[in-house]
Design a protein that fits this description.
Shape: globular
Structural class: mainly alpha
Number of strands: 0
Largest sheet: none
Distance between the termini: 26 Å
Order of helices and strands: HHH
Number of helices: 3
Radius of gyration: 11 Å
Strand content: under 5%
Length: about 50
């Protein structure tokens, strides 16, 4: 099972930046497709990689 926590943090930050209330983690996992979850994780990984 993949760790989606970093992707979720990225998602929450993106929502906050655009003035949107994010879903809680439970609904985030239930409503997003595998592809969407993978994209958020990919973006979070890129953000972490460029920060170091």
């Amino acid at each position: 099972m993949k760790d989606y926590q970093k992707g979720y943090e990225y998602y929450k930050n993106a929502c906050t930046k655009h003035g949107i209330k994010p879903l809680n983690f439970h609904y985030y996992m239930l409503t997003l497709s595998e592809e969407q979850l993978a994209r958020y994780n990919q973006q979070a990984h890129k953000k972490i990689s460029t920060a170091t």
